[in-house]
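Can't paste images in this forum, so I'm doing it all in text. The chain is below; anyone willing to post the predicted structure tokens underneath?
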Amino acid sequence: MNKTTRKLTQSALMIALALVLSMMKLFHLANGGSITPASMAPIILIALMYDVKWGLFTSVTYSLAQMVEGFYPPPVQSFGNFVLVILLDYVLAFGALGFAGLFARPFKHNRVLGGIVATLGVIFCRFFCSFLSGILIWGVYAPEGTPVWIYSLGVNGGIMLGEMVTTSIIMGVLLKFLPLDKMKAN
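Text version of the structure:
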């Protein structure tokens, strides 16, 4: 199998695994959010195995698959807000996972630490996108008298904190035992 075919196959399998994991809910929160069993880990693994360009290709493809699987239209009728939801809740949020390799690069001497730092970094980026979306788009659901930014922080912070914990633990275990260099298409 040639290098490109192997990379495409690995990415497709990891996207499929990430989608299946995203449908499994460890905790379902009242606001509609949920914590999954490390659904972002397969995408982060690809981003750690290959260069940033390939990581972004895989993560943006995953964002589009996420959108097809469960798109929630914004509670407003403006085309601009519709585009913002697509960008902030999907393309930029999940696309950020493709930068894991950049976060891990300073920790070449310790692959596990680098992977955990990368996981925390990209999930924080995803949180930031969701936090902005919560303020700009979904804030209409904030309880009366609650500042929109506090509402967004509470909703998105709880979800992303849970995702950070589960994904960081799983990534630490995977990176300890998986021979990523041998799995890579060379």
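The longest strand covers residues 27-28. The chain has a mean pLDDT of 93.
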